[in-house]
Write a structure and sequence with these properties.
The complex is a heterodimer of chains A (114) and B (114).
Chain A lengths: L2 E3 L4 E5 L4 E3 L2 E3 L4 E8 L6 E6 L5 E3 L5 E5 L4 E6 L8 E9 L6 E3 L3 E6 L1
Parallel strand pairs in A: 2-12
Antiparallel strand pairs in A: 1-4, 3-9, 5-6, 5-10, 7-8, 8-9, 10-11, 10-12
Chain B lengths: L3 E4 L2 E4 L5 E7 L5 E8 L3 E10 L2 E4 L6 E3 L9 E3 L8 E8 L9 E2 L3 E5 L1
Parallel strand pairs in B: 2-11
Antiparallel strand pairs in B: 1-3, 3-8, 4-5, 4-9, 5-6, 7-8, 9-10, 9-11
The chains are: A mainly beta (114), B mainly beta (114).
Chain lengths: 114, 114
Amino acid sequence: AQSVSQHNHHVILSEAASLELGCNYSYGGTVNLFWYVQYPGQHLQLLLKYFSGDPLVKGIKGFEAEFIKSKFSFNLRKPSVQWSDTAEYFCAVNARSSASKIIFGSGTRLSIRP
Amino acid sequence: DGGITQSPKYLFRKEGQNVTLSCEQNLNHDAMYWYRQDPGQGLRLIYYSQIVNDFQKGDIAEGYSVSREKKESFPLTVTSAQKNPTAFYLCASSVFRDVNTEAFFGQGTRLTVV
């Protein structure tokens, strides 16, 4: 069975700092990978997704993620964060063999100091 | 507007009572999911359904039941057997049998047992 680990539970950064949130999954087969964001009081939104092709994926609002198959990782990055990036971020995996079962990590709360 | 509608937004229940959470989607998606969100635990999968009249247990199905009589509807019943039902419940849907599948989420229902 697939699982997802997000090791950073709460990250606090100042504006303009660079961001990297870790995500590791466990599954030996082919996967789809996602990052979702939940802004305070809002519903979950898709930030970016990886299905195949270029392992460096660009998403909305300047976010990107790199799929490293050998490390089973899909870390989220942003070169310069803004106060408006304060939110909770969730990594998710969907194993291709059980196409519609999407498993989420425990989430990382990001707080940005103005 | 296409989307996923969860109702009600807030729900209060007395201990020992069953309660049903509604989820309707007009995206023509095949797959639907129910997740439970608790602080620090991310989203945990309760049940999911890939097609009408079929559904599978997720990681925390005990004390919950679902039905999928129509493609657009996937109601969740929280039974009195669920030991800790107070939580935020999220419904989602996605395209099935398509490699480009990501989940779209509703606004959620916050259930409080009083």
